[in-house]
Structure formats: structure tokens, C-alpha cells
tRNA(His) guanylyltransferase (Pseudozyma hubeiensis), 367 residues
Amino acid sequence: MAGTKFAYVRNFELPDSVIPSVYLVVRIDGKGFHKFSASHSFLKPNDPAALELMNESARYVMASLKGHISLAFGESDEYSFLLRKSTTLYNRRNSKITTHIVSLFTSAYVFNWNRFFPDTPLKMPPSFDGRMVVYPNEQVVRDYFSWRQADTHINNLYNTTFWALVLQGGLTEQEATKRLEGTVSAEKHEILHEQFGINYDRLEAMFRKGTTLVWTHAQAQTIGGGIDAEEDDASDAEQAKPVLTNAKDEKLRIKIQAKRAAKQAKKQEKKERKNLTGVLRTLHCDIIGDEFWTPAASEAVSTAAPASVPASALTSATSSRWESSIGDSEKTATEATVADGGMTSSRPWKDPARLQVAGLGTSVFLD
Ligand SMILES: [Mg+2]
């Protein structure tokens, strides 16, 4: 094969591996989703079922590439995936990684459609494009995600006000566009509050903050300490006093022991890493400030959100299409705080576990 006269065409394939030790972000974006969302009657300004379908597709990507992707952030019809700087996935080839993520995401989106939209048949094949951007350090990575979350806020505030003017205020879309032209954010808050009695800050966190997915501790308390530490102490003491009288043998013994200790440490590290990436959390929280990114001491994560939303919960919720008209958002948010498990699980984005954020950044910047 390699020796055929046609083999030279391989020389046209250019290498596209990304340099080592830098963070890779792959951002996927819905293609023509304006039309797609209209033809499937997505709720305005936000359709929680559509957003949950995006989240579920992203969870599938993260589970499929566990160990390679540490964080993802999604809003509207886009999702960004952060790959570890040490990842060797596809030898760090840009095109392979990007296309694989786009493909995983898109197929999961189609595969799960019926669970999230049981009463709405899929009318056309959705598609997503993707791009990879390389970021050199943690600060730029944080700034990248801050940029996306700031974008979420700006778009959501605009859309919420726009659709309030149209759906509740009776304006045409053109009139609403004109009304909002040149308004700053304070004015939009004011329109919402004065005209429609909507307190923007009390709307769903998923709409205002987007969705952050992060691998985190399975059982943080198992990291370090415990029996392993005691064993280490014992072997340290043992190593201190010579065991063998022959100096040469003793030297060899110490060498073997050191090797064994190093092996043990490596094993322990692997175990810790496994624990650190054990549970996939779904969050609707602020990722611009420090709270999310600051590692917690060694506190166990109390409740872990399920990696996947139970289909039964979604079916019951979607039968009413997760009514999310602007008017009752505040009411349901209030209800959710006193709601039982059924209420929160049928509206997974209201799960209190999704709003606990402190110290999760510890998992994000693993090599
Ligand atoms: Mg798009």
C-alpha cells in the first residue's frame, strides 16, 4: 500500500497537533438554531428542556472523554469544553479532537431528543460546528470562561426584557427591538421591574448563569491521611535505623525501599486523581468570581448531583413543557426552595445541589 504511486498524496495532510502543556478549549455552537428552535417551538426567552438537552449532551461528551476534559460551560446553543493541558487525546491533534467532540455532542443531542421533548418529533437534523482555541495559562482560561458567562448574562437580560415586552407588553418584535435600542443594563432591569414586576435576579439560575459541568471529588475525605499515612510513618521509622550489618547490603536495601516508596506514592497519586475526577457535577453558579475556583481545604462534597437526569423525571416534567413563562418564574423559584424531592427532580435545574459551588475549582486545573 505504502509503496503505490498514489501514496504521495499523504504528504498533503498537514500535521495539526497542538503544542504540549497548554489548555485546549473546544467550543461547539448550534448551526442555524434560530430556525431550529422556531420550528420546534422552543419556549421564549428560555426553554429549560432545550437547555437540559444541551446539558445532557455535554455530560455525555464529558463522560466519554473522562480524564481529558475537566470543565465545560454551556449557554443557549453553545458549549465550551476545557481539556487538560496534559491530555494526549489523539496526540493533541486539533481536527481529530474538535470533530470528535462535535460528533459526540450532536449524536447525544439527537439520541436524547425524545426524553426531553416527548411530545415534539424531531423535524430536522440539528448540527453543530466547533473550533479549538489554545490558552497558555490558568488566568487566560478563567478569563475565557468569564467572557462566556458575561455573554450569557448580557444575552439573557436582553432576551428576557425583549420577550416580556412582546409576550406580556403586547409589542411587536420590531417595536421591542426599537424600545431596547441603546438601553443599558440598568434600564432593562427597570423595564422588567416597573412594567412587568419581574425581579431579574430571582429568575432561574440556569438562565442567568448558564451551566457549568465539572469533575469533582468522589469522596474528598479519602484523599490523603488514613491508613496509608500510618503505613508511611512506620516505614519512615523503619528506614531510619540500619537493618543489615553489611554497609553495601544496607545501601541496596535502602535503595529498594526508596523505590518501593516511590511506587507506593505513585499509586496513591493515581488513586487520589481517580477520586478527584469521580463525580460529574452540574452547576448553575457564578464562575467569574474566585469562589468557584478556590480549592476547598479537604471538605467532602455533601451531595452529588446525578451525572445524568433520570428519564422518568424528565418525562413527567416535559409533559407540561416545563412552562417557564416569565410571569411564573419567580413563583416557581420560591416554590422550589420549599419543594420536596419530586418537585426539584422534575425540574433538575432547581436542584439545590446545582447551586453549591464553594471550592470546586480544585478539580479544574489538574494537569
Ligand atoms: Mg448558534
Remarks:
- The chain is about 45% helix and 10% strand.
- The longest helix spans residues 138-168.
